[in-house]
Amino acid sequence: MFNYDNTADLMIKEVGTEQRGDVTIRDLSFVGVQGQAPINAYLVVPQGAGSFAGILWVHWLGEEHSNRTQFLDEAVALAPKGVVSLLVDAMWSKAGWYENRVPAEDYRNSIEQVITLRRAMDVLMAQPNVDTARIGFVGHDYGGMYGSIMAGVDPRAVTYVLIAVTPSLNDWAFFAAQPDSKPAYIRQNADLELTDYIHRVTNASVFFQFAEKDIYISRTGTAIFFAAANEPRQRQWYAADHSMNVSEAKADRAAWLIEKLALTK
Questions:
Q1: Distance CA 48, CA 58 (A)
Q2: What is the pLDDT of residue 264?
Q3: What secondary structure letter does DSSP report for 96?
Q4: What whole-number distance in Å separates Cα of residue 129 and Cα of residue 45?
Q5: Residue 196 has pLDDT above 90, yes or no
Q6: Given CA atoms 78, 247, 172, 232 in this order, what sign does their dihedral have?
Q7: What is the DSSP letter of 261?
Q8: Dihedral (Cα; 48, 207, 217, 176), 10-degree rounding
Q9: Which residues does residue 204 pair with via DSSP β-bridges, in sequence order?
Q10: pLDDT on residue 13
Q11: d(Cα 112, Cα 33) in Å, to the nearest integer?
Q12: 176, 178, 121, 125: which is closest to 146 by C-alpha?
């Protein structure tokens, strides 16, 4: 279902660069699904020859930084510790995406989003001096949810940080436009259940970060997701809302990535 032509040209195009000290931020695009619009991304590169770990970061659907900028400061901070980061726009980065969704198209769009993340992983791993045995993934909200599906079909990452995730795409499917038939919608999307995919991950560690004041995710949902993951796994709660914009969460995931990807402390 998530297969794609991994020999197809990624058509990477760079449109600009920014320098932050010894860290270079490359503004680029690449082709995710063939025939569709290119994906905008930032590639954050440290100074030196490597070998570097790699991290793919995928943003949330939220009020602020609902695009590739969300984790940019964190990626820049980790770069001197030996990380090349790729931060990508997802389908929900478009203004009004959720409200304008057509439920009948969700299934196809979800599959294509996972394929796009796999193509993003191709971009990351093709970078010079990236150690393909030290690849991580960080995703918040939808970013973590679609990353969970990718994790079950693509074994290249060795660690995941999943932030404010709920165990089913259906949990967030019905707040705007309604499908013609909810039972039919649920049947069609049954093979996209996130717990099925995260349970397949046996070669990577998983760090779940949840918010104590999250009005979108139930305690039961967090328990279901955590229980579906295999060891090694960890779960941490924060005095935060769904945005998870607290320094403790940022510090904890940085420490996790430093340990799991054997970065410079």
A1: 25
A2: 87
A3: T
A4: 10
A5: yes
A6: positive
A7: T
A8: 40
A9: none
A10: 98
A11: 7
A12: 121
Residues contacting residue 233 through CB under 8 Å, at least 6 positions apart: 205, 206, 207, 208, 226
Q: Which two tokens stand for residue 199?
A: 């349970």
Kindly state the tokens that stand for 233. Answer: 């796994």
Taken in order of first residue, the domains within the chain and their CATH numbers are 13-260 (3.40.50.1820)
Q: Coil, strand, or helix at residue 159?
A: strand
pLDDT in tens, 55-103: 999 999 999 999 999 999 999 999 999 999 999 999 999 999 999 999 9
Residue located via tokens 């909810």: 182
Angle CA(223)–CA(63)–CA(37) in degrees, nearest 5? 95
251 burial class (0-12, 13-18, 19+ CB within 10 angstroms)? exposed
Task: Please name every residue paired with 84 in a beta bridge, in sequence order, or none if there are none.
Answer: 54
Are the C-beta atoms of 117 and 95 separated by less than 8 Å? no
Alpha-carbon torsion, ordered 206, 207, 213, 216, to 10 deg: -20
